[in-house]
Write a structure and sequence with these properties.
It is built from eleven helices and 16 strands. With about 350 residues, it is of the alpha/beta class. The two termini are about 20 Å apart.
Length: about 350
């Protein structure tokens, strides 16, 4: 086992050139990034021993996994003046759609879908976002051809090149409706105003996205109206066309859950503490339980920590595996420290926290 990953390629090449085969395959462990050697170089021996012993422990037992698949279907939400320029830049690399919550001049070419309206529902996660909105203006930008005939026909100049109708100026002449009759993009009496679609990624440029959770889902970026923050978020979008899996971090035992009985809600500790909004309440036949969306759970363990009955527990790594890691750290550090006659407690705590910081 070599405690250096930087020169892994060199060591592997040298190992292939030796005449006699190695007793065991080479393993490379990066402890440099987590140990902070500069200040404690002379006393870091026990810490090195503890981290290497931890690295030698077999991987935790596998658990069920959660899958993500993002194909690059991006929805940009915000004022047209900000959303449309970003859409023009990203449309060559991503499958872009725009939802304008405030008017902005529409491009003459229809290179990507542009919608208008107000968000009524938004939930989901990377690769599986569901968004609903209300088409509030009489002009449907998806049907509009940008011919400009309605702009010329309107006697009150209530329509401009952003193609919403300013209802404060409109006097109900309906000349625009007559002009657009062959296209049908304008409808003051439109009954079906609800719109819905699915996306893989969301770039929310509104000043106040009004998220119900403090930790947003993977694939959802809300940089606000700051151009720099928007640029940083956009740089990450190209990396989110991916397919990967992660462990299912939790295990839930409904039989011992104290959430509800006989139609009455009892404990809701896990629901209240979840920062990602992954946990919800369900009642069936008078029996209450919680429902966890594993794609939203990020493995922080807060739900397991607050659960009073043990119905929700942290599943990866398991309690027994964590106990084995702690025991290994303590044993290795103590043995090395005794050989060097060093104080044990302060550095042991430091090595332990540093190792877990690396895992996180």
């Amino acid at each position: 086992m070599v405690a250096c990953t930087q020169e892994g390629a060199l060591f592997s090449e040298l190992a292939d050139q030796v005449e006699q085969p190695l007793i065991a395959p080479l393993r490379f462990v990066n402890i440099r990034e987590v140990a902070g050697w500069t200040q404690e170089a002379k006393t870091s021996g026990p810490k090195i021993a503890a981290l290497l012993a931890l690295a030698d422990i077999p991987e935790a037992e596998p658990v069920p996994v959660v899958n993500y698949e993002s194909r690059g279907r991006l929805l940009i939400i915000g004022a047209g003046s900000q959303a449309i320029p970003w859409a023009a830049k990203l449309s060559s690399s991503l499958d872009v759609s725009v939802l304008c919550t405030e008017p902005g001049d529409l491009p003459l070419t229809r290179g990507y879908p542009i919608y208008t309206g107000g968000i009524t529902k938004r939930d989901g996660y990377l690769g599986n976002f569901s968004v609903s909105w209300d088409l509030q203006n009489p002009i449907d930008p998806e049907m509009c051809t940008r011919c400009g005939a309605c702009v010329e026909a309107c006697p009150e100049q209530a329509i401009d090149l952003s193609f919403p109708i300013d209802l404060n100026k409109c006097k109900s002449h309906r000349a625009c409706v007559t002009t657009c009759a062959s296209i049908g993009a304008i409808g003051f009496d439109r009954k079906e105003r609800d719109r819905h679609s699915e996306f893989d990624l969301i770039l929310d440029l509104r000043a106040d996205p009004k998220m119900r959770m403090s930790q947003t889902p993977q694939g959802y970026f809300a940089p606000g109206t700051d151009p720099l923050e928007q640029a940083l978020a956009v740089n990450q979008l190209s990396e989110m066309v991916v397919e990967f899996e992660k462990p299912k971090y939790f295990a839930y035992n409904e039989k011992i859950c104290a959430h509800g009985r006989n139609g009455k809600v009892g404990c809701s500790a896990c629901i209240d503490v979840c920062s990602t909004g992954a946990i919800g309440s369900i009642f069936k036949n008078g029996q209450g339980s919680v429902e966890v969306n594993p794609n939203l759970g990020m493995g922080c363990g807060a739900c397991a920590t607050t659960c009073p009955s043990g119905a929700m527990r942290y599943n990866y790594p398991s309690v027994s595996h964590q106990g084995k890691e702690v025991k290994t750290l303590v044993s290795a550090f103590t043995a090395a420290a005794k050989k060097l006659n060093q104080a044990i407690a302060p550095q042991l705590t430091f090595a332990y926290l540093k190792s877990w910081h690396a895992n996180d």
